[in-house]
Amino acid sequence: MGDRPTKRKKPSLAEVAAIAGVSISTVSKVANGSADVSDVTRERVDRILRDRGYVATKKRRGSLTPVVILARDMHSPYSLDVIRGAVDAAGPAQIDISIALYPNDAQDLGWIDEIQAAGKRGVIAVTSVLDDAQRARFDAHRLPLVVIDPLSNPDESTYSVGATNWAGGLAATEHLLGLGHRSIAMLSGLPTAMASRARMSGYLAALNMATDDHEPPRVIPGDFTYDSGLEEGLALLSEPEPPTAIFAASDFQALGVLEAARRVGMSVPDDLSVIGFDDLIIAQLASPPLTSVRQPVDQMGAAAVETIVALLGEATTRPRHTELATRLVVRHSTTAPRA
C-alpha cells in the first residue's frame, strides 16, 4: 500500500501576515471578504492563502459581526499577543475585529455611545477598570462586554477571561524552594490589581506550606514596570544580606531586577535567581533567558472572542469568569543558591 498523502496544516493568520508583510487584521479581512482592503494587498494575501491551502470565506463586510478591542497600550507585547489571539479566532467565527485605545477621559461616557453609534456589536476590554456607570452604559446599549485580565474584581454581571495567577505564583515560589532557596523576596504588581494579589497569594501559600525552614515572606510593592523592578531590586540587593531569589510579578519587573543585579555586581543566576511572570517574548531574549510563568495570553484573546460569540447568541450557560492555566517555563535565570 502506498503512503497516504500528508495533510497540510492550515496556516495561522499570523504566519500569513508575516509572509505578506501586512497586519494580522488585514489578513483576517481578506480571508473574510471585507471590503476595506486595497486590490493590490488583497491579491497578494489571497495568493499566499491559496498557496497554503487556505480557502477564504467570500463574504461581504456587512455580513460580519463588528467587535472592538479596547487596549491601553498598542505597543506592549502583552496587548499585541492578546490581539493576535483574538484576531486568529475572529475569522472562523465571522467576527470583524477593530482596535481602539481607551480614551484619555474614560469618565466621559460619550465614548461608549460612540462605540454603539459606530455599529459595534460587542466589546473586548484589555486590562481595564470599569466602574458601575460605564458597565451600566454598556448594558443600556445592549453591548456584550468581555474583560481580559481585569484589574479589579469583576462583579457578577461582568464576563471576564484571565489566567490561574494564584497557581502561577505558587509554582514560581515552589520552584525556588525546590532549588534550595530559603530567602525569597517578591516584587508585587499594582496592589489594586486582582492578578497581582492572586500571584502574591500564591507566593505566600507556597512559603506557608514549605516544610523546610525559610526566611519570613517579604513582599515589596511595585507596579509591574521595568523601573519598579530596577528601583526595588537595587534597594533589595544593596542590603547587607540580600535575598538569594526574587520572584517578580511581571517579566518587565524581572528585567529591571536583572539590571539591578548587574549594577551591584551580582551574577544571575549564580548569585541571584530571578523569576518573572507572563513569559512574553522579552523573557526569551533576556540575558540570561528568564525563567517565567507563562500566561496563555493569545488563548485569552481567543477565549474572549468565543465568549462574545456566545453572548451574541444569547447563550446563558457561558461561565462568567474563564481561567486558563499558567505553567512555569524554566530557563537560565534560576539555579541553586551558593553553598
UniProtKB/TrEMBL annotation:
It comes from the Bacteria. One of its GO terms (molecular function) is DNA-binding transcription factor activity. Pfam families: LacI (PF00356), Peripla_BP_3 (PF13377). CDD domains: HTH_LacI (cd01392). Keywords: DNA-binding, Transcription, Transcription regulation. Gene3D superfamilies: 3.40.50.2300, lambda repressor-like DNA-binding domains. InterPro entries: HTH_LacI (IPR000843), LacI/GalR-like_sensor (IPR046335), Lambda_DNA-bd_dom_sf (IPR010982), Peripla_BP_I (IPR028082). SMART domains: HTH_LACI (SM00354). Residues 11-65 form the HTH lacI-type domain. PROSITE patterns: HTH_LACI_2. This is HTH-type transcriptional repressor CytR. It comes from Occultella aeris.
